[in-house]
Amino acid sequence: MKRYRALAEELAATIRAGTLRPGERMPSVRQLCRDQRVSPATAMHAYEALEAAGYVESRPRSGHYVGRAWQTPPAEPRRTRPPAGSTRVEISELVFQILEGVRDREVVPLGSAFPSPALFPWARLARHLGSSARRMDPWSTVKSLPPGMDELRHQIARRYLAFGCQVAPDEIVITSGALEALNLSLQTVTRAGDTIAIEAPTFYACLQAIEQHGLKALEIPTRPREGIDLDALEKAIGRHAIKACWLMTTFQNPLGATLPEDKKRALVKLLARHEIPLIEDDAYAELHFDEEPVKPAKAFDEAGLVLHCGTFSKCLAPGYRLGWAAAGRHAQALQRRKITSTLATSIPIQHAISQYLAEGGYDAHLRRLRQALAQQHAAALRALREHFPDGYRVVPPAGGYFLWIELPDDVDALEVHRLALHEGISVAPGPMFSARGGFRCCIRLNTGHPWTDELDGAVATLGRVVRRLARGK
Amino acid sequence: MKRYRALAEELAATIRAGTLRPGERMPSVRQLCRDQRVSPATAMHAYEALEAAGYVESRPRSGHYVGRAWQTPPAEPRRTRPPAGSTRVEISELVFQILEGVRDREVVPLGSAFPSPALFPWARLARHLGSSARRMDPWSTVKSLPPGMDELRHQIARRYLAFGCQVAPDEIVITSGALEALNLSLQTVTRAGDTIAIEAPTFYACLQAIEQHGLKALEIPTRPREGIDLDALEKAIGRHAIKACWLMTTFQNPLGATLPEDKKRALVKLLARHEIPLIEDDAYAELHFDEEPVKPAKAFDEAGLVLHCGTFSKCLAPGYRLGWAAAGRHAQALQRRKITSTLATSIPIQHAISQYLAEGGYDAHLRRLRQALAQQHAAALRALREHFPDGYRVVPPAGGYFLWIELPDDVDALEVHRLALHEGISVAPGPMFSARGGFRCCIRLNTGHPWTDELDGAVATLGRVVRRLARGK
After folding, report:
1. Facing B133 at nearest CB: one of A130, A141, A341
2. Strand ranges across the sheet with A323-326
3. Could you count the other beta carbons within 10 Å of the beta carbon of residue B1?
4. Which of A136, A139, A141 to mutate to test the interface with B (most CBs of B within 10 A)?
5. Which of B131, B139, B180 shows the shortest C-beta gap to A130?
6. Which of B9, B239, B247, B332 has the smallest number of CB atoms closer than 10 Å to its CB?
7. Could you report the per-residue pLDDT of A360-401, keeping only the tens digit for each?
8. Does A347 lie at the interface with B, CB-CB under 8 angstroms?
């Protein structure tokens, strides 16, 4: 563990123990440096982490204070226990109904799947779009058919290095967003009737894909911090003919969980032993709050069995629809699927993003974006503490922009959704993330929007709704 | 029939009869005006049509002459006779092999599916891409999720009026190119195992879609000018549980055939009687050589059963990947399919094309494009007459950029393809367009490239290859 993390843990323990109470002043950075023999940077970093987790608040020119809303930290959600056995999925109708309600810009988007458009470098992207289109060789419309533009694939391959991955440009297929990459991956490695292992809860688009391709879902239990339970997965592999896994191993949507590195290694090994392809949805890879990127399972893939799907939609250019699959040994088959389903990904878009990546500025943008998301996260956690009745459970994730909240057992998330929407607020109710309508007492909140009084008010309203439903039983 | 058409037909008959012989001077425009009592414009138009069909050549400042290469016009290809009964499709491997060979820019692209990139308004498109992206409201990345950008859907709906169609913006779903629209349409109205009626020959992407979705193809005979044989289709409907038709009723790829208006009306009526959806691929709609657009079958659809798929890829912006489906009663289901497979179509691309359409210039571009394609067509037909051995069959289509050529029965198109590729020339061999490897003696030639000596030389080389193979037997 990094020094600042250890320091933050120590201070958090002091707060949890009640030694330092809500509203009390924390030791100054200078004090910490002296007492703990750390550098000012480490002390600052520790406070940032504590702030992100909601333990402390900083006041300009005054220092750090124990969070006013902080009493005892909420408990963690429990390990999930989806029913055993695989199942056909019929989720789409529910999901579509809920998504419809979320699109209205007047509705407070706590149920949205998207980060705020305000966080992205639109002017710069527009400049690249115009100038790269002007310079584009018209013949590249033929040349950049799948697998896609060479230069872009090289840049993506280079970027994998920071994530501890050796990915050859040759195994990268450019797609129209991560969702296409995931769907093509699924179609490449399965046939109708096959059983697919997924996390419970899981991203609803995964359930929809399984439903539409006539597959069966096998939901594997997860832990709130670490995600998929590998023992449970191994047992499931022993019992079922699993043809593929579709997992989010980092900042999982909706949990926010991240499988630790050693478990990612074990996961890849386990699947390789059984020759099971892993479709790894890594849409939030760039949104880590820590400085260090998180290695994907792909980093440990020696057999070429991991189809790693990435995107620029969450970290750079929402709506541009540019993603990719690094598909290992399945790259050629996936490329062919791409050709027969949507032919190519928009060539000017490929050029523009490639030019943006080449020109630099991406890292600076990412630093700002990550900081903004971490702050919004902290603000949302604070608002929850302030406005939600006791008894809810949550784990602050280390990246992404979702919070998965387990409400008291007797609170029906679909009711929360319905009542909240009535008040002009959306939430994503747990059953959207389940093949069999599970997670009835869970909701996913979007923290991808710059925090405002309106959002704070929306959380307060949600808190009242939850309180009412908890009492009503 | 328009006056100029009638006049052209008359003159062509005179040539066919041998009254006017190759190299002889045709009546001057003034003479025609006087003798036939037509306007100079009509006379000019008639000569343009004759030139496009290869009957005459114009010599600058000298007038029109009977085409030197013209002896007797080549015969029409025969009505096709695919084997009866539906079949699973396994075409992809062959198609991919052939497409691979076509991507090399050094290869003369007679086998290509794309028109020359030189024919499109790139600078203007680039300007719109840059400026519309600069002006784009970032929130439109959420707002323009499927069915897509409102303004663009309105513009497309308005454009349908010129084609005699009443299409509501509400039934239009924006897609990433026509191929996505077609695939989504197919998935919307079928399930694995269903039987789909298609033309024989048909566009290979249709065969690949049928293969990948586990459907069965029922190939219906066609005539070289008119396309699908409606009597045969009606009989097939009586014998098989056909769940959908996937047809190109205008400038069919590869035939170039166009189903006449009354037969389109009959087709729609026939399918409505049996509640069979029609997936109408109308990718070449804008590429008519005549002034008048050709009505699609969609124009006669009262039951909402026609899913009409269009695109800007062939007429305005190749590689931008912007298409749509006007999906009638299936619009909502198709929109949902779109959301779950690729989520959205690139928003800046939607904005750019919408801005281009709004600003005007589209019609002027289309006029230039159509004229260029008609001229290239005529040049290709002339080159065929000059360089191909007698006995090939071809119909000059009224739009698009393909020629379907039936070679003597003993010439193997796959051999033609192989030998031609060896000489640096691609062709699209007939079996690519058949569910069961039919059309062994047919090839499709691309006339979408400005005519050059290189192309003329390539046709000469092809002619030699054909001659060699015909003799070899």
Report:
1. A130
2. A172-175, A323-326, A306-311, A278-281, A242-247, A195-199, A216-220
3. 8
4. A141
5. B131
6. B239
7. 799 999 999 999 999 999 899 989 989 999 899 999 899 999
8. yes
